[in-house]
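Record 1 of the preview.
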Amino acid sequence: MHVESDRTSTIKGLNMRRVPITFLKPGMCVARPVYGSAGQALLQRNVMLTHRYISQLKDLGVPFLYIEDGLLDGYRVDDVIADETRAGAVHRVRNLVAAMETPNPLAHVLMRTKEIARTVDTIVEELFRQREIMVNLTDIRLEDDYLFGHSVNVCVLAIITGIACGLNKEQLSHLGIGAIMLDVGMSVIPQTILRKPSLLTVPEFEAVKKHTTAGYEILTALPQARDVAHEHHERYDGSGYPQGKKGNQIQLHAQLVSICDVYDAVTAVRVHRPAYPPHEALELIAGSGNRAFPLELIAKFLENVAAYPTGSVVKFSDNRVGIVIDTPKGLYKYPRVRMLYDQQGQPYLAPYEVSTAEHPTLVVSRIMSEAEFSLYRRALIS
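->
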């Protein structure tokens, strides 16, 4: 599957909405590219979907696609890093893990680490240029690329949180290298366990836990990465593993990465469960202060991640329906919304914008499913 386009594959200035794969239809316009495991564009933006493309996306395990449908016309939808940067980073992490299967793995890991370091520096530079942007979008991740896409997402989230904590560029580079290599120890875990479509048994989970010690041993010559690999499952109250460290016994970078690791893991589609919506994942993290994670680091993380990503269709407590435009920096639970339907489900002739931060009684009750929203739109057409 490969479609060329003469347009750039970054997504600056686009309007788009995330649509589950089961609701894609021929004729829909692709708003954000899909990349393969080698970093190549499989499906570019501005391409019109066909039955064949949709079938191939399903075969690849793509859970959703961003499409342009006019609901956010006039608004920018910005990702925090360019799609090409993200795709290249995923490819390099895949190469890093593959290096573990070579005759001289440690030498190959060190060689791949230089590529990783350059990639992390690029991510740091891009994030510094866009310091006021909230994390508003979810990456399009192939089913077989979970581990690699997860590592890149954790890296991006950790650097954003590190910027909020006042870290300088050198510190951010070290943080990013540790974050993007956090799960390198997973290379020693059997694929039968990693791909198991049901909950793990106790012995299987004990085997998975060994990835922290394995990561430390693999990265022993890289102090900026080895401690993160070793400690990202430790918890502030001492309930984590592998050593049961607590409080400030846990290295700062590992504490930052652990928050980002949990958030990205629970918001991703996994073989044994569906994804948590972002607002539920953020509630989980916010409620874990001084237990799993320190309160002050949670606060810095929450400053930068939107509970209701741009393009989410939300229903309010008064039954009005709108689509999220964006979320102001530092106000993760209070999106700006374009109101589409009134309390009776009738479309507004002139949709209007509302800042929920300025209307405390206007409460999002839930994110509407694509099936439910399609009923609204069908009624409008009829």
